[in-house]
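Continuing from the previous page...

OK, I double-checked the sequence for Peptide chain release factor 3 against my notes and this is the correct one:
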Amino acid sequence: MSKAANHILQHEVDKRRTFAIISHPDAGKTTLTEKLLLFGGAIRLAGTVKARKASKHATSDWMEIEKQRGISVTSSVMQFDYLGHRVNILDTPGHQDFSEDTYRTLTAADSAVMLIDVAKGVEAQTIKLFQVCAKRGIPIFTFINKLDREGQSPFDLMEELENVLGIRSVPMNWPIGTGRDLCGVYDRMKNQVELFQGDDHSTIKVQKVDGYKDPIIREMAGEYLHDQLCQELELLDVAGDPFDMEKVQRGELTPIFFGSAINNFGVQTFLENFLELAPKPEPRSSTAGEIEPTNEKFSGYVFKIQANMNPAHRDRIAFLRIVSGKFERGMSVKHNRVGKEIKLSQPQQFLAQDRDIVEEAYAGDIIGLFDPGIFRIGDSLSQGSEVIFDELPTFSPEIFAKVTVKNALKHKQYQKGIDQLTEEGTIQVFNTVSFDETILGVVGQLQFEVFEYRMKGEYGVDVQLQRMPYQFARWIVDENLDPSKFRINSTLVKDKKGNYVVLFENEYAMRTAIDKNPTAKFLETAP
Ligand code: G4P
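Thanks. Re-ran it with the corrected sequence; updated structure tokens here:
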């Protein structure tokens, strides 16, 4: 590779930031995403993303389920440029019926923005998504939203992050007043205050100050709020964690930003700080060792497969995260699982749901590949020598149902459907050891609905799902496995690779089994 080409590659990698926003529904993810897109010039009008959310695919031809339920089944990718950075936001479904896809999408992100409602604090879905990010050890940045409303005190929220999520935090800015009294934030890193102005809080004034004790703040915010600010920041200086970039990079410390997405307050400084602190694409491990993003050979892996984006064509889109090199439209790459060269001719990039053909892309970018049924989740593509990236994690299902075919003559189509939908990661399939029953496991109820709908629509098979009382699945590794042990409030099944899995009805049953089988290992995901 020439020196100039190498230089370009390095530059392209350095400027990329690929992240996901994780939050509980209603925390303001759509609102924040929209403001970020506005800054990046990716949309021109406020309300564009919101309108899409509201009209819910009136213009889209996605699955009927999405229309009926008014939610997005899938995650999309949004890209824009801002201050020399190329930003990729991986969207994750915000509805509580999220699925394994949501989790898998997080494996393609280099960092995460955790969005929290100032009044509600850490909520259920945030915890789950946080845990997936924490397992990967990626940096997590926190945006506390809706500061214009009454909420919990910043100190209480920091304590909650530590108690519930086990992560220490370092506030990058601090509110001056809260709720109706909110008049601005003090930026601890830049030594400046950002003030709300006007009754509608619409204009924002930025003022450089000489530390938080600067009398200018007193003049602007009044005596009472300034005294309060000084007391709180003194406490934070003494008792709080200092900013430590290495801890942030290891995911042990989360920088916190306070703001109000709807008022566009604190969003721009958040974005600018975040882009500076967030990591560029990192190397990924593979059978060929660590693959550097600046490696001149293109490589990437499929983390998500989306079916039926265009029902007229029954096509699928495979979402590929580029790990290294430069992608060029029409290039030939090795599809390592099947050992064949394939041509990437119609790659797509996404802004919300509008798709554009992409001509070139680099490490950190996500491209959508037209998939006539040749890709599976976790597939690696590479130029030149074979590179196979580490397998994507599977996630422990939490909801289970026994599946039967209504018409026995349709068994062949049924099997085909089950196989394909398992490959896409829509469902996980288990078979009971004693009777040959099939049990499906999913993370969110919606996955069952998608399964039923697609079995009928695409394979012509009516299925019946009967919910089972299990809540936990644990892969069991035990030299002397005794199936008779797993009868009370649990059942022993096999996954599609033949690994033994125990399904438990409740945590008590699971704990008891773990205690009674000290030599066995109980794993949350397949070994
Ligand atoms: P989500 O994608 O995380 O589900 O949240 P979304 O952005 O849709 O926001 C949920 C609700 O919270 C919306 O109100 C939105 O306007 C409001 N919101 C977002 N950011 C802020 C903020 O900084 N301050 C305040 N006070 N509210 C905020 P809604 O009534 O459900 O919808 P809408 O009628 O406003 O569209």
